[in-house]
Specification:
single chain; alpha+beta; two-stranded antiparallel sheet; two-stranded parallel ribbon
Length: about 80
């Protein structure tokens, strides 16, 4: 799992570590149109055990149009690329 702290315009995400049964599961994240949130959620989802849908993932095109293709290129074999 993870712990998320939001203060003002800053967000801190900390992994809780531990055994595989504490990994992030499947779910969805709303980026609210913020490309930074969409990218952070996609990277965090790589460590998860299930599929993650990112609402507003198209917002990454604002700063890195090829982000999901780059993420796909570096993910572990057999892993899922969130989107």
């Amino acid at each position: 799992g993870l712990e998320v702290e939001v203060e003002g315009d800053e967000m801190a995400v900390r992994g809780l570590g531990g055994s595989p049964d504490r990994r992030l599961g499947r779910g969805s994240v709303s980026s609210r149109g913020d490309h930074r949130i969409a990218m952070a959620a996609a990277v965090a989802a790589l460590a998860g055990s299930g599929a993650v849908a990112i609402e507003g993932s198209e917002s990454v095109a604002k700063s890195w149009p090829g982000f999901f293709e780059a993420l796909e290129a570096i993910r572990a074999p057999g892993g899922r690329t969130p989107r």
